[in-house]
Prior knowledge:
By secondary structure, the protein is α+β, with helices and mostly antiparallel strands. The protein has two domains: 5-224, no CATH class; 232-271 and 274-334, Arc Repressor Mutant, subunit A (Orthogonal Bundle). Helices cover 47% and strands 10% of the residues. The chain contains 17 helices and seven strands. It has helices spanning 8-14, 16-20, 25-31, 48-62, 78-86, 92-103, 137-154, 176-180, 208-214, 220-224, 232-240, 251-257, 262-271, 276-292, 299-305, 311-322, 326-334; strands spanning 5-7, 45-47, 110-116, 120-127, 160-164, 184-185, 192-196. The strands form two sheets. A five-stranded mixed sheet has the order 3-4-7-5-6. Strands 1-2 form a two-stranded antiparallel sheet. Helix 8 links the parallel strand 5 (160-164) and strand 6 (184-185). The relative contact order is 0.13. It comes from Marinobacter lipolyticus SM19. One of its GO terms (molecular function) is DNA-binding transcription factor activity.
Amino acid sequence: MSNLTVSRHFVEASLIGAARAGYDTRDMLREAGISPDLLKIEMARVNSDQFSRLMQVIWTRMNDEFMGFGPRQCRAGTFATMCALVIDCPNLEAVYRQAFQFSRLFEPMVSMELEVDDQVARLVTVIEGDISDPMYFMRESLLVIWHRLGSWLVGQPVELLKAEFDYPRPIHGDEYRHIFHCPLAFEAERTTLTFDKRFLSAPVIRDRPEMHQFLKTSPADLLSRPDESNTFTGRIRALIGRDFSKPLPDFEWIAAELHTSPQTLRRRLKQENTSFQEIKDLLRRDMAIYYLGRQDLPINDIASKVGFTEPSTFHRAFKKWTGVTPGAYREGERSNIGE
């Protein structure tokens, strides 16, 4: 079971190109196990498995890994071919340089170019030709896929120092905090990810059998399931676990487990654009959404499973998270069953 969820915004944004090309997006949603009615709820979220399936449905049906947003079609299998090329690279720097060379074979080019100076390395977005990406989905996906692919290949998340975007802060800009875990800047000159250049010498530790397995669900999984194992956010989520029916560990205990002081941990969480309270709240929200998808579980049981002694308190909290009651949310999800 995955205990991460994805905002309704990204579900709707991912389908814009398909809708424009005349595809039945409601049918695509159903194939991915997502109820079209659920998306009527403004603050709805889907679990990462559903979002991953939706990406694969869109790519397969459209035979376009740019999903109708790009300056041209990007046939299914392009990403896999690039991966087959970079798996033999010795380190992360070689991976990014080789991937860029591969992208240059296609015209117009859509890629990220590596720039290195004395202290830092940057991945800079390069998009030639006209794109139709009104909700920035393609540009966000490009950043996420290149960053997380590199992290996976070297077996450690490449910690970002800064993420910059050459467009205004979008209405869903708050979601960026949980995607990039670093300071954000909008209306910048270029769209770039900046990180410490020491990561460039990190060796590629994956082999071909691992890559073969990885490609069964990628790049969909890269978009829906961030590897947070090296972020403090992810490590705290892991320490809290999924059993909210017993008292949660306190902040001091968490800090001790992570071999840091509470003050340092607070500062690190601030750098990752979050807080201990927010991590607990979002984990509870994601668990509640997961359990509501299991139609056999009474809502009062779900309340206690996610750590609420009073069902009424759970109802209030859930409405704050999603804008609707647990019952209304379940109704939205249920409409997909049996269609």
